[in-house]
Fold this sequence. Notes:
The chain is an alpha/beta fold. It contains 5 helices and 9 strands; from the N terminus they run E-E-E-H-E-E-E-H-E-H-E-H-H-E. The protein has a domain of 121 residues: Rossmann fold (3-Layer(aba) Sandwich), CATH 3.40.50.620.
Amino acid sequence: MSSDKDIPTSDGKEIINPDGSSISEIEPENHELKEIEGYHISKDTIPSFKKILVTDDGKDISNKALNYAVSLSNSTGAELHILRILKDVEKFGDVSLEGSHEMSQMDNQDYHRKIKGEVIDAMEEKIKKCQEAGCKNKVSYKFLTGNVVDEIVNEIDNNNYDLVVMLTSHIDSWFSSLFSDVRKIISSISKPVLIIQ
């Protein structure tokens, strides 16, 4: 037989345990949850991609990252920008730049440039393969010289990329990953990064 002291004195909210006993439900404190910008799901926070940067070191394995970038470009309509940093310029063979200047009929100045060289030809061949593989959007490339980490970070900081796609080798320990170029780049930028292993 139950007495009045067995009846919950709350507003009637109780939790029934599997054994039939009950306990009063504890009301959460009245704190308002503040939504942090970007942490809620809505049309306004879903990212859109217009410019994707993919890094390339000239080796065949870099094509793995480029394949992902092409897929993302096709599904989002984003332009692809391929960036290669030339650390040792003298190792890349002869590169020549030719230019000419003409005046058109409307007094506008037209500049014509022609760049030749193995490294340029290889990049243009890579872009051609992207198009043959079904890349639907604009693909451009840029060569920079200098420190890999510094040049990639500067390129990302100075241009309005929506996503960066980079390749890294399999990281087998936290210690080795701590000093990798990819980790240094990620810690220096505020853009989203897709890392391909």
